[in-house]
Design a protein that fits this description.
CATH architecture of the largest domain in chain A: Roll
Pfam family, one (chain B): Ribosomal_L18A
Number of strands of chain A: 6
Radius of gyration of chain A: 20 Å
Strand content of chain A: 15-25%
Structural class of chain A: alpha+beta
Largest interface: A-B, 24 and 23 residues
Radius of gyration of chain B: 22 Å
Organism (chain B): Cyclotella cryptica
Number of helices of chain B: 3
CATH class of the largest domain in chain A: Mainly Beta
Number of helices of chain A: 5
Largest sheet of chain B: 3 strands, antiparallel
Helix content of chain A: 40-55%
CATH class of the largest domain in chain B: Alpha Beta
Strand order of the largest sheet of chain B: 2-1-3
CATH topology of the largest domain in chain B: Ubiquitin-like (UB roll)
Number of domains of chain B: 2
Protein name (chain B): 60S ribosomal protein L18a
Order of helices and strands of chain B: EEHEEEHEHE
Helix content of chain B: 10-25%
Oligomer: heterodimer
InterPro entries (chain B): Ribosomal_eL20 (IPR028877), Ribosomal_eL20_dom (IPR023573), Ribosomal_eL20_eukaryotes (IPR021138)
Shape of chain A: elongated
Structural class of chain B: alpha+beta
CATH topology of the largest domain in chain A: SH3 type barrels
Strand order of the largest sheet of chain A: 5-4-3-2-6
Keywords (chain B): Ribonucleoprotein, Ribosomal protein
Chain lengths: 134, 183
């Protein structure tokens, strides 16, 4: 199995730890063997330009076409052009994350509603199965 | 001197206090790296009394201002010349760091000198600093990250200890084998 995700200028990363955890960012430059310079773009993902260690990021499959040390404006344009946010939200990784966050934000009554909905769903399935078997 | 937190860069100007014979003594300016202005002024007098016949009790500080980095949005290569006292003698050294700010590079330097040579902050003297173009870098480690196209994978990612989570190697039992390959 070869590698397909690399630390490189333009790589879109998911920040996994720290105050920006859960937000997307783009690699602007590589500082050294431990850290890189990233930026959101701030207007889209809310991550300001900063240095983060590789330990706190997860590489995604997405890249955007930017130059090294790209300015905020160029980065934003690159994201818009490549439609990166939509691509990310369409990925199964992002969907799983969204579902996880949704579940975590549910109230007790919401969880009850989920339980009832699940029961109704399995009732329908069971009924159909019975019909098919008959 | 402690180097806890981020180091700062100060310009300190001082001179001998004026007397009746010499009301306007020559002033000296120095760039000092220190965590706060108090330490910067103290360092100024430490260096000054080694260079000239001057000391704090008969001198005065005219100015002490912090110098901030003009452009802290791109990564630069910093070359640092230093002198340090090891357990067996005094050595000169040249080191290179990549950082957004010179003060960041200086912080890295103090940390690395402590790690590699067990050098305490008080026995390090910064002689000179410069920003270095990528082609003029002398150390291969910094140079490989200063190239135009840098690309590398993150192989074998082992979960490190985080708040509320032990490091992989510290966990006693697990029901699943850990994933370390993430493409």
């Amino acid at each position: 199995m070869g590698f397909s995700r690399y630390v490189e200028v333009g790589r879109v990363v998911l920040i996994s730890y720290g105050p920006e955890a859960g937000k997307l960012a783009t690699v602007i430059d590589i500082v050294d063997q431990n850290k890189c310079l990233v930026e959101g773009p701030e207007e889209i993902t809310g991550v300001s330009r900063q240095v983060v260690p590789f330990r706190r990021i997860a590489l995604t499959d997405l890249t955007v076409k930017i130059q090294r040390n790209a300015r905020a404006k160029q980065l934003k344009a690159a994201w818009k052009e490549a439609d990166t946010l939509a691509k990310w939200e369409g990925s199964s990784w992002a969907k799983k994350l969204a579902a996880k966050n949704k579940r975590a934000s549910l109230s007790d009554f919401d969880r009850f509603k989920v339980m009832v909905a699940k029961q109704q769903k399995s009732r329908i399935i069971a009924k159909k199965m019975k019909e098919l078997k008959a | 001197m402690t180097v806890a937190g981020e180091m700062r860069q100060y310009q300190v100007v001082g001179r001998k206090a004026g007397t009746d014979e010499n009301p306007n003594p020559e002033a000296y300016r120095m760039i000092i790296f220190a965590p706060n202005p108090t330490t910067a002024k103290s360092k100024f007098w430490y260096f000054m009394r080694q260079f000239r016949k001057m000391k704090k009790t008969t001198g005065e500080i005219l100015d002490c201002v912090e110098i901030t980095e003009k452009n802290s949005r791109t990564v630069k290569n910093y070359g640092i010349w230093l002198r340090y006292d090891s357990r067996s003698g005094t050595h000169n050294m040249y080191r290179e760091y990549r950082d957004l700010k010179l003060t960041g590079a200086i912080s890295q330097l103090y940390d690395e000198m402590a790690g590699r040579h067990r050098t305490r902050p008080r026995s390090i003297q910064i002689i000179r600093t410069a920003t270095v173009a990528a082609k003029d870098l002398k150390r291969p480690n910094g140079a490989q990250f200063a190239q135009a196209k840098v690309k590398f994978p993150l192989p074998h990612r082992v979960d490190s200890a985080k708040r509320g989570q032990k490091a992989l190697s510290d966990r006693t039992f697990s029901t699943v084998r850990p994933t370390t390959f993430f493409g």
